[in-house]
């Protein structure tokens, strides 16, 4: 059965897009469609040019043995701004203010489409850091970290607040929560990260940066190198965080519990 | 600028596949490509037939106002079997046995590609249950639950082991862990689920079923209806679980700590 060009293009696009950052050898498609590699190269060029012109992402061709083709998420700045504006708009709803001055945002960050978008934005912003792992601390940052890991095609690592028996020997550290000043514990299974690895920290929220600082220290114990820190929301105050280089997508300027006013805006320095 | 047929097909496939279960109105594509709806209907038919013939998923056309086209993940049984065989093969590695008779599996279930596959398998198996939410208990089940939620395009809900101040008023229940016999707590923010909702429980592991039973009880407090329970691994023993209808993808027959033998197999009754 002969497969038409438009059919090959639909199938190849589906397979590439669904496996971001995975290299597919042309032999794979060649066998699947019983088509010559030169034909497939033309198909892939069409897909590449289409994604380029509609700003839907990047198709890369990797030459040589072990080479092939892969899709990579890459968002243009305009789309990032629009998406972050939409999210901050939702977060400004006065009904989200919780006693204590917190904002209820789990429905937003646990929405698969929003988490997917945030993951692709982080993947775009940290692409050049080439992390080996995306790491987070349980619990609320996990969906965002998972979607970032998926967009970059690297394993997710979850640091626990206590060490669980089902993960074998673990490294634990104590750290001081920057906002509450309380001593807390985080731990990670020994075998979760290999020495010398490059890790990207992703979390939902940063106030003083105590948790991120704790992860930095824990990664030191593993001999791993933190190549980036991305958070969905960082509070403006305190200005001086416990970590230096971090990338917040949104800035929470203030929450007024009495009026329900939430002043949150996209980070203008993305 | 005129957009060619093969280019429209690449772009439409990308957009549909990346947003499973989201209905796109033809007007959207019509504006994007400045093409007639009849032309787009032909393009979509080609995509539909291609995904059909390569068993890559389903394209559905929804008629009427508010109608349009959507992509839905749907795996054939052969691909499900091969994927589960691969995963159980990896889990049989003697190096995974941890003191206490547990198996280290976080690297597998936190791998984005594996979690993606498991999410699509659950989405395939539970498609007819039409859940409004996918729900899990922190922590290890979250990546699988997130990927299932994404494949079905419904919100993820995470039950906490303690109630956090940042989520407002919460409902807590105590339950007895079926395997340890200890009393544990789980809690969920009041606003996380609306009454009358249909929920699908997804978790990584089930032994006696105490956690699933706890979720069932908690959902009762919310007036929500549990329409399915999916777990990646269920132990064969105890045969009588605390919940009746659950779907395990893999069955863990036994773990021999002395020899490092892990007897785990795909569920033959999928």
A few lines on this structure:
The structure is a homodimer of 270-residue chains. By secondary structure, chain A is of the alpha/beta class.
Largest interface: A-B, 62 and 62 residues
What does the largest sheet of chain A look like? Answer: 6 strands, mixed
As for the CATH topology of the largest domain in chain A, it is: Rossmann fold
- Low-confidence sequence ranges of chain A: none
Q: What's the count of strands of chain A?
A: 12
User: Which band does the percent of strand residues of chain A land in?
Assistant: 25-35%
How would you describe the oligomerization state of the chains in this entry? homodimer
The CATH architecture of the largest domain in chain A would be: 3-Layer(aba) Sandwich
Radius of gyration of chain A: 21 Å
- Output the structural class of chain A: alpha/beta
Terminal CA distance of chain A: 50 Å
Give the neighbour order of strands across the main sheet of chain A. Answer: 6-5-9-10-11-12
Mean pLDDT of chain A: 94
Q: What would you call the shape of chain A?
A: globular
Helix-strand pattern of chain A, N to C?
Answer: HHHEEHEEHHEHEEEEHEEE
* Count of the separate structural domains of chain A: 2
State the CATH class of the largest domain in chain A: Alpha Beta
Counting H and I runs of at least 4 residues, what is the number of helices of chain A? 8
Helix content range of chain A: 25-40%
């Amino acid at each position: 059965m002969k497969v038409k060009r438009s059919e090959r293009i639909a199938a190849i696009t589906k397979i590439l897009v669904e496996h971001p950052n995975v290299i597919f050898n042309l032999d794979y498609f060649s066998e699947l469609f019983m088509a010559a590699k030169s034909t497939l190269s033309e198909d892939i060029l069409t897909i590449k040019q289409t994604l380029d012109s509609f700003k839907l992402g990047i198709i890369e061709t990797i030459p040589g043995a072990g080479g092939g083709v892969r899709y990579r998420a890459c968002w243009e700045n305009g789309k990032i701004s629009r998406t972050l504006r939409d999210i901050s708009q939702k977060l400004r709803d006065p009904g989200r203010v919780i006693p204590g001055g917190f904002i209820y945002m789990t429905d937003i960050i646990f929405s698969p489409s929003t988490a997917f978008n945030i993951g692709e934005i982080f993947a775009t912003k940290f692409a050049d850091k080439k992390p080996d792992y995306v790491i987070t601390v349980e619990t609320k940052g996990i969906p965002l970290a998972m979607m970032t890991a998926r967009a970059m095609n690297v394993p997710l690592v979850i640091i626990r607040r206590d060490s669980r028996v089902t993960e074998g020997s673990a490294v634990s550290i104590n750290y001081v929560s920057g906002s509450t000043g309380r001593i807390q514990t985080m731990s990670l299974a020994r075998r979760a990260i290999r020495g010398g690895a490059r890790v990207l920290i992703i979390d939902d929220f940063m106030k003083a940066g105590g948790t991120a600082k704790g992860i930095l220290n824990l990664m030191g114990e593993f001999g791993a190198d933190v190549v980036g820190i991305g958070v969905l929301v960082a509070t403006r105050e305190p200005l001086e965080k416990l970590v230096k280089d971090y990338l917040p997508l949104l800035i929470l300027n203030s929450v007024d519990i009495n009026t329900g006013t939430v002043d949150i805006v996209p980070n203008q320095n993305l």
